[in-house]
Amino acid sequence: MPFRTRAATLTGIATEPVIEVKSLSKSFRKRKSRERVQAVADVSFDVRRGEILGLLGPNGAGKTTTIKLICSLLLPDSGRVTVNGIDTQRDRSRALGHISAVLEGNRNLYWRLSARENLYYFAGNRGRSKRQVREEVDRLLEQFGLAEKRNELVNTLSRGMQQKLAIAVALLAHSEVILLDEPTLGLDVETGYEVREILRGIVREGRTILLSTHDMSVVQDLCRRTVVINDGRVVVDDEVANLLRLFETRAYAVELAEEPGAEALGRLRAAFPAVELDRDGATPVLRVELEHAADMYELIELLRAGSARIEGLNRTTVNFEHVFRRLVREGVSYGGAAHAID
């Protein structure tokens, strides 16, 4: 079972799911071998209507495979996906009528067509005529900052422009849910922020986004809730704010008069595996996370035994990158810790 904090149970978003992923598993056979690699193992979560859900994990964690299973580009070995209650395997075309996807590493556009021609082409694939979408195409090109490039071939556009155009194509489908796989990967900082604003606008229009990424800053900026996948398994399904609060409660910075000796530092690391010694400033700072309130007494005793003089003790603020590293490294071992510190 994925780790969930107590606060999540009390303050979770009471919104109906538009996508339900239940016990998905998928393995692949290695080339020239009978050995199979488990890409996704018993993955379950839901996507709630009107949210941007972050599907977060390191490279190779199983995020893209999960996205492809949801939009039926791959068939699962076991498990099921429903979109608005419709099973994607039993009634694929009707289920997929509610979603559109922009997949990283795939050709989401025709490179030998212009930006405007791509929009007309993919609208036609959804059964919409050029006459029906003409005004909407012009509006999207303007909205996404592509109006001046409307007649240029896609293969001449920058990566950022291609990514914005691919999202515009997905919007033109008028689907309720948009699946985005690494939408900011490889973009410069300014374009990355442009794409984030576009995604916020999509949700304000009443649509839902499932956002797969390994960029923690994107999740912290855009998502209220995140599902963290590691080694093909869900290790966390919770609100970002809950996770930040949990780790902020556990994290301390201890200012020392001087660095502890190697032996004393070794004892500290044996007791608190996540302890780090920050030597960058004029004053050495010991950064440590405590699972239980009573651990503070052990920390103080170990420092006293090592003749370390404490100059200051403060709780530290954390960002989601820090949270993510700990969750991926230790996964479900935090199940008890969530209830240990109030």
Tell me the layout of helices and strands:
Layout: H1 6-11, E1 17-29, E2 36-48, E3 52-56, H2 63-70, E4 78-83, E5 86-87, H3 92-96, E6 99-102, H4 115-125, H5 130-143, H6 159-172, E7 177-181, H7 189-204, E8 208-213, H8 216-222, E9 225-230, E10 233-239, H9 240-250, E11 251-256, H10 262-271, E12 276-278, E13 285-289, H11 295-305, E14 310-315, H12 320-330, H13 337-340
Parallel strand pairs: 3-8, 3-9, 6-7, 7-8
Antiparallel strand pairs: 1-2, 1-4, 4-5, 9-10, 11-13, 11-14, 12-13
Helix pairs in contact: 4-5, 4-6, 6-7, 10-11
By secondary-structure content and strand pairing, the structural class works out as alpha/beta
User: Topology as H/E string?
Assistant: HEEEHEEHEHHHEHEHEEHEHEEHEHH
Rg value: 24 Å
Distance between the termini: 23 Å
User: What is the CATH architecture annotation of the largest domain?
Assistant: 3-Layer(aba) Sandwich
CATH superfamily of the largest domain: P-loop containing nucleotide triphosphate hydrolases
CATH class of the largest domain: Alpha Beta
Mean pLDDT: 84
Approximate helicity band: 25-40%
User: What is the count of β-strands?
Assistant: 14
> Can you tell me the CATH topology of the largest domain?
Rossmann fold
Tally of separate helices = 13
Low-confidence stretches are 3-14, 332-342
Total separate domains: 2
Biggest sheet details: 6 strands, mixed
What characteristic shape results from the CA principal axes? Answer: elongated
**Adjacency order of strands in the biggest sheet:** 6-7-8-3-9-10
**Binned strand content:** 25-35%
